Amino acid sequence: MTATDAGAAVAPETIAEITQVLYEEAELLDEGRLREWLDMVTDDITYQVPVRIHKEQTGASRVTGVQANSFHLDENRTSLLMRVERIETGFAWAEEPPSRIRHMVSNVRVRSRADGDLDVRSYVMIYRSRWDRPHYDIMTAERRDVFRSVEGAWKLARRLVVLDNTTVPMLNLSFLF
Amino acid sequence: MTQLGKRTTTAPSGYQLLQDMAAMLRQGEAPAAIFNDPEIFAIERERVFARSWVYLAHESEIPEPGDYVLRYIVDDPFIVVRDADGEIRALHNHCRHRGMQVCRSEAGNASNFRCPYHGWTYKNDGRLVGVPVQKQAYGDRLDKDALGLIRIPRLDAYNGLIFGCLDEEAVALDEWLGDIRWYLDLFTLRSPAGLEVIGAPQRWVVDVDWKIAGENFIGDSYHTLMTHRSMVELGQAPRDPKYAMYGEQVRIPGKGHGAMLIGAPPGTNLPPFWGYPEDAIERAKISLPSREQFDVAYQTRIMLGSVFPNLSIHNPIRRPDHHYEGNVPMMTLRVWNPLGPGRIEIFSWFAVERDMSEEFKKLSSWSYLRSFGISGTFEQDDAEIWTHIARNAGTFTGRVQKVNYQMGVDVEPDPDWVGPGVAMPVNFTDANLLGFYERWLELMLG
């Protein structure tokens, strides 16, 4: 779903609804309410953050270097659950004490798909601060999501995170995008 | 309680620190300042990184003529490229005209590298073949044959692992590696089809010294139970402390290399040969150079190996997630590339035998991604801890402290070990770390 291969337009109410879902999702992620976040994703979710490299344009798109076969995260529901349960042990030192994380979500675009799901694209800027120093890390990305209506609630069925970084400027990726 | 010692004016300078360190190492100690010090770093880049064989790439990353990847030794950029004749080269990414980087993508395929500044153009073997309006601009003065891209002084490969060296006078790669080759074979020669590195590496920057990161892979299984306690709690690493203690720790004397080979501790139920399927084990029987190597591999469930200075390989039996039934091993190659005092860039690759099924490769990549690498549920916590060691090592009071390598000082080598090197029959020992630092110090003072 880009400006050139967009699916069908959706009603403004749907866009408002999905935007609200994304904001609520960000709240859960930023407050570490990860069990509740897991309730927002489908059982068959695919969640991927590909490695991106600095690369000249070779095809039609100027969004280059997004790797098809190497990832920073390549998750399904069980592995996401493992990450959540790991935090819950209290021994996940990377996030204990927790980072201060803020997901700034914007540029939400929604299109309907032939299968009835929604293609949702959004930009995210993630601010992260750790320890007692004023230093902070920022990453930005485009999230290419598929949302599905399950028993009246919109659930995340797919997320592909297109990073704006090649070499990642953080010591680890201990959070979700 | 230990009091802070009386401090004489300032802490020792880089060279003094190294002089003092020789005696400290004999006591199983080292100065913390070596982990975050501008002078030490300056000496390291000259005496360690400009003299050592440094890992650059795996041959499978550049299978076709023209394939290249951009790699670094500290901050020196090299184009590691398979030229039109199939020969692998490492070319300094530095135009001979005004010093611009002529290769401007991290990876790809190119017959030529053309400088975007004035257009000097080099074949993928490094020869200068094009100078715009050469006749009008230079007449007959320009000796193009003498102005090719500079080749790395030394380049060689072992079982597909490509190493480069900035020192023309360095010993041959085979001699540099020495007996660690026997252990590298265990990683790289399990299949007649060879090893395949899949995709681009994860790259990320961590405020830590390269030696601290390397320690974990050379000879520190002792940290597993505490650092990785979250994953112990989830059953992804055994709770039994014997697990981290169990196994053989092997060092290659005088070389600084090391390996850890961990089998199944008594009472555990882990399948042999990292949990590979039967047909893969049969292929390994044919492929591994010696019966002894196969027998050692057969008993191994977790193996780590490090080539001095900054290549590490980690190869454990694992599960893609904590509910997965069964075991799928994974392998990751690492370079801890120093960027400055107390700062590194990590390159992390995923590797697997080329002839494994696509299904196995996918599961193995999950075993890797979800435990190691930038988002790994184990490695996230390593990075968090490392940064604070480096932070302390750079402080006024921290830099005069010592770090401790006295674990297992009374352990005697295993007389029955079949492989080369000196093997300790237990992993609760700092023997490999001391071997690494002895080699490091030798180069630093040399």
Compact summary:
Chain A has 177 residues and is an alpha+beta fold. Chain A is built from 3 helices and 6 strands.
Q: What key attributes describe this structure?
A:
heterodimer; A: 177 residues; alpha+beta; Nuclear Transport Factor 2, Chain: A; 41% strand; globular; B: 446 residues; Rieske Iron-sulfur Protein; Naphthalene 1,2-dioxygenase Alpha Subunit, Chain A, domain 1; 2 domains; 8-stranded antiparallel beta sheet; 20 strands; 29% helix; 25% strand
What features would you describe in this structure?
The complex is a heterodimer of chains A (177) and B (446). Chain A is of the alpha+beta class and 177 residues long. Chain A has three helices and six strands; from the N terminus they run ααββαββββ. Chain A has a six-stranded mixed beta sheet. Chain A starts with 11 loop residues before the first helix and ends in a 14-residue tail after the last strand. Chain B is built from 14 helices and 20 strands. Chain B has helices at residues 14-26, 38-49, 134-138, 173-177, 180-188, 210-219, 224-227, 229-233, 241-245, 278-287, 291-299, 358-369, 379-393, 431-445; strands spanning 29-31, 53-58, 67-73, 76-82, 88-92, 107-109, 112-114, 121-123, 128-130, 154-158, 161-165, 195-206, 248-252, 257-262, 302-307, 311-316, 331-340, 343-353, 402-404, 422-424. Chain B has an eight-stranded antiparallel beta sheet, sandwiched between helices. In chain B, a hairpin with a 4-residue loop joins strand 13 (248-252) and strand 14. In chain B, helix 1 (14-26) runs antiparallel to helix 14 (431-445) and helix 2 crosses helix 14. Chain B folds into two domains: 54-158, Rieske [2Fe-2S] iron-sulphur domain (Rieske Iron-sulfur Protein), CATH 2.102.10.10; 179-445, Naphthalene 1,2-dioxygenase Alpha Subunit, Chain A, domain 1. The A-B interface holds A 49, 51, 53-56, 58, 65, 67, 69-76, 78-79, 81-83, 85-87, 89-95, 166-174 and B 104-108, 198-207, 227, 229-231, 233-234, 236, 320-324, 345, 350, 365-366, 369-370, 373-375, 377, 379-381, 383-385, 387.
